[in-house]
Task: structure prediction
Amino acid sequence: MLVASAGGHLAQLIALDKFWKNHERTWVTFQLPEVEAALKDEAVHWAYFPTTRNIPNAVRNFGLAWKVLRKERPDTIITAGAAVSVPFFLVGKMLKMRTVFIEAYDRITMPTMSARLCYPMTDLFVVQWDEQKKAFPESVNIGAIL
Result:
């Protein structure tokens, strides 16, 4: 399962298509025209947005995560953030699913809030800059995705 907010977070996951294109997958993201176009041939569950500091939508996305993850039963949840990733990681860990978090490319010296929240629950934490390893010492640097 690939989980991401729209925009740059989603673009990073799409850019990893060589990795995921030959695997069964489901996406979780926001229903916006540009996202619908980018994922037109993909299975998608639409998350609630906005998510930044929006407690009602965080609760709704937790409920969505519970429903979707129990139905889909993915082997692994992969995300590039942002806030929509947190409820999926929480529920995923409760259901004993593997998790992979990719920290944002543009947050070199200051970690994202979703990364800080998900780091303790992540089986594999990926960064794109050596500087990001200061905040996430157990991470793996794969270099720039975009």
